[in-house]
Amino acid sequence: MALAICRRFPGSFCGTPPRPALIKHHINKKLPGQTCEDCVLTGRMIHTDARMAATLKFLKPLGYQAFCNPFAYSATQSVTYWNVGSCTWQTEQDPPEHSSLCHPAKKVENINSTSSSQRLLTTSSALPGSETSRAPASQASTLKSGSPRAAGVVEEDIEIFDSFEDPRGFLQLRPEYQLHSYNRSETCQPLSVSEGELILHKVTVYQGNLQPQVIAEYFCKLSSLPAEQHHVVLSSTRFALLCQLSVKNIQLFDVPDLINILKAFVNLGIPPSHSMLGESRQVPQDLMQKLESLVLKYIDLINLEEIGTICLGFFKSSSSLSEYVMRKIGDLACADMQHLSNYALVNILKMFRFTHVDHVNFMKHFGQIAPQRIPFLGVQGVMHLTLACSALRVLDEGLMNAVAASLPTRVAYCRSKDIAKILWSFGTLNYKPPNTEEFYSALINEIHRKMPEFNRYPEHLLTCLLGLAFSEYFPFELINFALSPEFVKLAQARSKFELTKELYTLDGIVGTECLDYRGNRLSAHLQQEGSEMLWNLARKDMCSKPEFLEALFLLETMLGGSQYIKHHMILPHTRSSDLEVQLDVNMKPLPFNREAIPVEEEATLKLKHVGVSLTDDLMNQLLQGKSRKPTQGETESETEPRARELEKTAIHLGSSPCSMADRLGADRLACMQAPQVKLAIQLTNKNQYCYASRDLLGLHNMKRRQLNQLGYRVVELFHWEWLPLLKRTRLEKLMFLHEKVFTSTF
After folding, report:
1. 736-744 average pLDDT score
2. 57: DSSP letter
3. Are 202 and 246 in contact (CB under 8 A)?
4. Rounded Cα–Cα distance for residues 76 and 466 (Å)
């Protein structure tokens, strides 16, 4: 059974009338003396009850258009790919699914590798206390009857995934879906080979004058050819011409015609990779908002497998669900997660990853059931669970250990995408499992074996290497290949992502941390381009945060001016900026930031002989050993601000009060001194840490490791300390910063 889905156009209505749909079967709610069989009958009766039936009201079309983008995956798009899925730079959407090139015979195209809801529904119904209110056991037991999956889960079956049938498994959970689905068993009038040739000939002759209805009719008739002729038709240039004509006239088709064309595609066996299909993941947002309203309206009547399907649909169309709806979904899943199929669980997690909603209770329940499911979940499903955890910054050691223990023996089933995102996830969460060496060795070796596939998807190789670098693994041979001019050119030309930042990050890591590396490096031009891109992003990000601007202003005030502190990226490849301060041998700040020094003063600072002008007043102070008394015109109130100014100077110098003239001379002398201590001040935020913890994520932990290697002392302005201080007095904030700079680092 296949599901034909179409979009509607102005002035047309969906081809099926409103029907009762999405009715929850309350099978578990027994009445006194009621048997399980009675419950099933009661549940079926409920859905016919007019009081309980929910009517699926089709949306009145406004102006939706059908989109066809045959080159959606081949076109170069400017998409931020950092954090694979999204971490602090999360705008990347999942690349198209693709199966491994190295193991085509094993049919390992296993997006979630659970054999859909069929397998888990069967196994779930066998568990003690299994709740069947969401899908009657009689239905679940008949899913794909006669197949090995219906008899139970076998090890060889785990990695098998039917990309056509499995996502449509939910259609068999309710009879209502058959009213809206296309049954492939429907028979139609067979078409002879000669009649098919005549149709293709007419396409060539009348191509400019074919009406949309005629085009749809031709598709339907060609789909009635004998099965052995389908390959001949699909490879025909005349059929390709018919496809082009349908694309050209796509906005002129009415709904029945579109449905008939989709039925013809099913019968002809057009593969997902065909230019007429694969996927652009675009949809009118007003349509998705109305669909979300329907989801919310009937959410208490939808079962968990349907919720998983809804989440997958929104995820695949790059459409978000509101936080409120996601929390409702999380609550429903928590109530019966032990009976939630792996397929639905993965799809719900995809949506949590996409929306970045932190449903604490859901993740808690997930952590309780996920580790024991890992051995029975295909590697693609394992990847999605792991990636969701890293995107949500949730470190569950039990889950990570189960993944690490399971993968080495199954790594051959991994696609390049799976390897990349699993390595990224472990690196992002900065976690090393007990079997670290076995785990990383297996995955690195598999990268070598799958290099032809990585050449097709160069972004995956860069993701692998960045994830490995976070975990302090640096396979020089792979790095040398990734930074070679040939691969760089390939990555820029073939990938749909803009990979300059990823290449620059990898190059910067190698240059900082791998001093014995002698392989390829990026060209100076690309290094400059990557540095500018990342600096612009980091500066824009930090300068939009009030807590950062306040810290910078107060540090400038405390130290004596902007020349004593510099906001820049010490390590540009780490994608975040720093506040650098340099101290001399006496632990006094140095005016090293020449960009902040006025031009007229810079020339003076370069003089070798520096000193203070000897005025009569200063000579009197030196000879008499005491300060002059205030003149008759100076009052007590006028001298007090000057004293406070000297005290401020003493604070930022970390010494006793001194005259401003002494300070000027000290500044000029210090300008020529080499710094004794270089401080890299980090203003942190919660997204740099694992969720609800103080454990840094991989990128930020790597940055601090590399700053130490360069001789910097890292000063942390922890967000849990600094943000509450923003509501306190200015003096309290200055005292806090003074302690951080001059006390806590030594």
Report:
1. 90
2. P
3. no
4. 22
- Res. 620 pLDDT band, cuts 50 70 90: low
Cα angle: 507, vertex 508, 510; to 5 degrees:
65
Q: What percent of the chain has pLDDT over 70?
A: 68
The pLDDT value given to residue 73: 31
Cβ contact 167:116 at 8 Å: yes
CA distance 159 to 124: 19
Report the C-alpha gap between 295 and 287 in whole angstroms.
12
Residue 423 clears pLDDT 90, i.e. is over it: yes
Tokens of 508: 């910067």
> How many other CB atoms sit within 10 Å of the CB of residue 36?
11
Q: Which residues of 46-76 are buried (b: 16+ CB within 10 A; e: fewer)?
A: bbeeeeebbebeeeebeebeeebebebeeee
pLDDT of residue 179: 78
Across the chain, mean pLDDT equals 76
Residue 517 to residue 521: CA distance in whole angstroms = 10
Tell which phi-psi region holds residue 42, choosing left (phi > 0), alpha (psi between -120 and 50) or beta. Answer: alpha
Distance CA 290, CA 708 (A): 53
Pairing relationship of beta strands 578-583 and 677-683 according to DSSP bridges: antiparallel
Q: How many Å apart are CA 336 and CA 127, to the nearest integer?
A: 13
The DSSP-derived string for 456-488 is: HSHHHHHHHHHHHHHTT---HHHHHHHTSHHHH
For residue 61, the 8-state DSSP code is P
Helix, strand, or coil (residue 696)? strand
| 490 contact partners, CB below 8 Å, separation of at least 6 | 455, 458
Separation between Cα atoms, residue 141 and residue 631, nearest integer Å: 102
Of 28-32, 125-129, 443-447, the one with minimum mean pLDDT is 125-129
Rg (CA), the chain: 33
Contacts of 603 (CB under 8 A, 6+ apart): none
- Beta strands 566-568; 578-583: pairing state: antiparallel
Degrees to nearest 5, angle at CA 340 with 117 and 300:
105
Neighbouring residues of 626: CB distance < 8 A, sequence distance ≥ 6: none
CB burial of 497-527 (b: ≥16 within 10 Å; e: otherwise) equals: bbbbbbbbbbbbbbbbeeeeeeebbbeeebb
Name residue, tokens 């929910």.
54
Among 274, 313, 261, 269, smallest CA distance to 292 is for 313
Distance CA 681, CA 701 (A): 14
CA distances from 312 to 117, 168, 177, 328, 367 (A): 13, 11, 17, 16, 21
Direct distance between the N- and C-terminal alpha carbons of the chain, in angstroms, rounded to an integer: 70
Instruction: Say if residues 264 and 220 touch (Cβ distance below 8 Å).
Output: yes
Q: How far is CA 252 from CA 9, 199, 256, in A?
A: 9, 21, 12
Strands 712-717 and 677-683, how do they pair?
parallel
All residues at 6 or more sequence positions from 200 whose CB lies less than 8 Å from its CB, including other chains: 222, 233, 236, 238, 239, 242
- For residue 296, give every residue at least 6 positions away whose Cβ sits within 8 Å of its Cβ, in sequence order, or none: 324, 325, 328
The predicted-structure confidence for 60-99, as pLDDT tens digits, reads as follows 444 444 444 433 333 333 333 343 433 334 333 344 344 3
Distances (CA, A) of 429 to 87, 392, 411, 426: 10, 10, 21, 5
Q: Which amino acid is at 90?
A: Q
pLDDT of residue 416: 96
What pLDDT, in 10s, does the model give residues 33-57? 444 434 433 333 333 333 333 333 3
Mean pLDDT, to the nearest integer, of 202-228? Answer: 91
Determine the average pLDDT of the residues in 248-264: 90
The amino acid present at 442, given as its one-letter code, is A
Total count of residues recorded for the chain: 746
> DSSP class of residue 250?
G
pLDDT tens per residue across span 570-602: 999 999 999 999 999 989 999 999 888 765 555
